[in-house]
Amino acid sequence: MNKILLIVQREYLTRVKKKSFIIMTILGPLLMATIFIAPVVISKYSKDDGYKVHIIDQAPKIFTTILPSSTTVQFVNDTINLEAAKKAFDTDKEYGILYIPADIIKNPGGVVLYTEKQANIKVTSYIERVLKEDIEKAKLKYEGISAQTLESIKTEIDLKTLTLKGEENDSSLNTIVGFAAGIMIYMFIFLYGVQVMRGVIEEKTNRIVEVIISSVKPFQLMMGKIIGIALVGFTQFLLWIVLTFTISSIVNTIVYNKKNDPKEIVQALQHQSTSGSVAPTTGESPTQSKDLLKMMGNLSSINFPRILVCFIIYFLGGYLLYSALFAAIGAAVDNETETQQFMLPVTIPLILSFMVAQTVVTNPDSQLGFWFSMIPLTSPVVMMVRIPFGVPDWQIALSMSLLILGFIGTTWLAGKIYRTGILLYGKKISYREISKWLFYKD
After folding, report:
1. Percent of the chain scored above 90 by pLDDT?
2. Apex 319 CA angle, 313 and 324, nearest 5
3. By the 8 A CB rule, do 156 and 287 touch?
4. Residue 9, domain member (yes or no)
5. CATH code at position 69
6. Last residue of a domain, one of 153, 185, 205
7. Average of pLDDT values for 408-422?
C-alpha cells in the first residue's frame, strides 16, 4: 500500500508542477467565463448606427399605418414610385427601400426590401414583425373586431408540475442539471483517461518502467498512476470551478457596477410578472420574466446534495473503470499510433452512452434509460442524466454496485494485460495475443 501511495504522490506532484497544468488551469476558467460573459458585454455595449429605410407604400391607406421607427430602423415615407426611389437612392446615407404592394392583405409575400448589400437580420426581423402586427390590425378592423377584444380572448396557461407528494418538478431544469452532469463526466473520463494511457506509453518508451518494476509490482504501478492522475483531475476541476466563479463575479461587478443579489433578482422578476411591466434595460417580455422566475424558484425543488454525492461516485467509478482500460492499452503498445485499433472498443460504449443520454432526457423512465444506467460502461453518464428526474434508491444502489463490480473486473483484466505488456517491446500486438495474456499464471 505504501508503494502505491508513493507512486500516487509522484504522479500527482509531477503533473501539477508542469507548466501545461498551470497554464490550462488558468486559461480554462478564462475561456469558460468569456463564453458566458462575452455575449452579455457585447449586447450591452454594442450600438447600431441606425438604418434609414424608405417606404414605397402602394397599399390602400385604410389597411396600413405609418410603420413605427425604432433605435435600429428609421422609416421614411416616400410618395415617389419604386423606380424613381432606386435612382435617387443614396448608398452613403440610406440603407434600403421597402416596397409594399397594393395587395399586401391578400399577398403578404409581395413585400420586398431592396438593399445594396446583404440585408441585416435585425432589420428584416423588425420589418417582418411590424408589418405582421400592422396587417393583423387592418384585418381586425376590416372584420369589425377591436384589438382590445382580441387581447382579452388571449389566455396564457402556466402549467405547474407536482409529484404526488406535492413536490415541485421542473422538467426543463432537471434536463439542464442532468445533462450538464453527464457531459462533465463524459469529458473528464476522456480527458484524463487518455492521460493515463499516454503516461504509460511514455514510461514504456523511455524504458523508465524497467527500473520502476524492479521495486514495485505492475499492478501497484498501474493503480498508483490511475489514482494519481485522478487526483490531478480533481484538483484542476475544483480550481476551475473556484476561478470561474471568481472571474465571473469580478467581471459582473465591473460591467454592472454592483453585485447581483439572487433575492433582489427574484423580487424584481416577481414585480415584473405581477405588474406586467418590464424594465427598459432588460429587454425581456413579461412571459420571459415569468419563465425565468419559475425556473429560479424551482431550484429549491432539486435535491442538490443527493445529486452531488451521486456525481462524485459515478465520477470516480467511471474514471477508474475506463482508466484501467486505457492503462492496459498503453501497456500493450509501443506508441500512440498503435493505440487506434484498441481505442475503438473502449470508446464506443462511452460515445454510445452520450448518444443515449440525449434520448433519455425526454423519457428518463424508459427501458432504454434503465438498462443503460445499469451497464457499468454506460451508467456513469446515463444514470447522472436520470437522477435529477427522480430515480428510485434501489436502482441507484444496484447501478453503483454493478459499477463497482465492473471496475474490479476491469481492473483485474487490465492488470493481466498490464503486467505482460509493460515489458514487451518491438512486437506487433493483436487481440489474439492479448487474450493469451489473460490466462498467464502469476
Report:
1. 3
2. 130
3. yes
4. no
5. 3.40.190.10
6. 153
7. 80
